[in-house]
Amino acid sequence: MNSIQSVFQKAKANGSGCLIGYITAGDPTPQATPQIADALIRGGVDILELGLPFSDPIADGPTIQAASLRALTAGTTPMQVLEIAKEIKSKHDVPVVVMTYYNPVFHLGLDHFLGAAKTAGVDGFIVPDLPVEEADDYRKAAAAHHLDTIFLASPATSKDRLIKIVNASSGFLYLVSRFGVTGAQQNVADSTVQLIRKVQPQVAGKVPLAVGFGISKPEHVKTVIDAGADAAIVGSAFINIVQQNRNDMLNQLQTSAEALKRATKKS
């Protein structure tokens, strides 16, 4: 059993879901990211998702786009992201998942980059622009390095394609809660609850279900967990705090994570 599986099993035994926290590595600086991770993990984040900054983040909304720009301006490189992951893993027994677009992985070389990631302690990857139909080489390389491959499904995913994605996924399935790009929302739509209930039977007994895009408040987390998700993914809400970059930023991050984690307790 790997570390991601262990986290989900522990949460289930405790009658709760998992909180997955996303931050952009290198935002506002590479040196600050491990401190931000510390604060979120102290607050209760079960799995940390590190975004690899990219110049054309097509799945991301304005908040994460701005974070990527700040990280790139600060000089953050793909290999530096792995060094950040290594530093975080040296302090915390928490799974670290890297979200990256495929271009940096392809440019650096599949085997080279994934091998370096494993050495750094990374547990898995999310590659939103890599369709499952074209992922055979990537999946083989990831499996060779014992890295989870986390695919995304959306409201537009057909049942047949969903089954294919579920069968190809490890770690967890990332369910995009709505059409569009990432970004904090005021409410979780009824359609998201219906989507979770539709997808949950397809993943049951195969891979945990994590829901992201627009999840930013404790009540959002509670809604998706009560609907049947195994985890809620929160990103833009944390990045908004980082963007403000106030003197009490780390305390705010920890407090926010604590409130979100409490909401994962199942009713």
Detailed description of the structure:
The protein has 267 residues and is of the alpha/beta class. It has one domain (3-262): Aldolase class I (TIM Barrel, Alpha-Beta Barrel), CATH 3.20.20.70. Helices cover 49% and strands 13% of the residues. It has helices at 3-13, 33-43, 62-73, 78-91, 102-108, 110-120, 136-144, 159-168, 190-203, 218-226, 236-244, 249-262; strands at residues 18-24, 47-51, 96-99, 124-126, 148-150, 152-153, 173-176, 209-212, 231-234. It has a nine-stranded parallel beta sheet. Helix 8 (159-168) links the parallel strand 6 (152-153) and strand 7. Helix 2 runs parallel beside helix 12, helix 5 packs across helix 6 and helix 11 (236-244) packs antiparallel against helix 12. The longest helix has 14 residues, at 78-91. The relative contact order is 0.17. Residues 180-184 have low confidence and may be disordered.
Key features of this structure:
267 residues; alpha/beta; TIM Barrel; 9-stranded parallel β-sheet; 12 helices
Helix content: 40-55%
Give the H and E element order: HEHEHHEHHEHEEHEHEHEHH
The poorly predicted ranges are 180-184
Terminal CA distance: 28 Å
Morphology call:
globular
Annotated CATH architecture: Alpha-Beta Barrel
Query: What is the fold named in CATH at topology level?
Result: TIM Barrel
Q: If you average the pLDDT, what whole number results?
A: 93
- At the first level of CATH, the class is Alpha Beta
Q: Please give the order of strands in the largest beta sheet.
A: 5-4-3-2-1-9-8-7-6
Rg measurement, Å: 17 Å
Number of domains: 1
What's the total helix number? 12
- Look at the structure and name the CATH superfamily: Aldolase class I
Report the structural category: alpha/beta
The profile of the biggest β sheet is: 9 strands, parallel
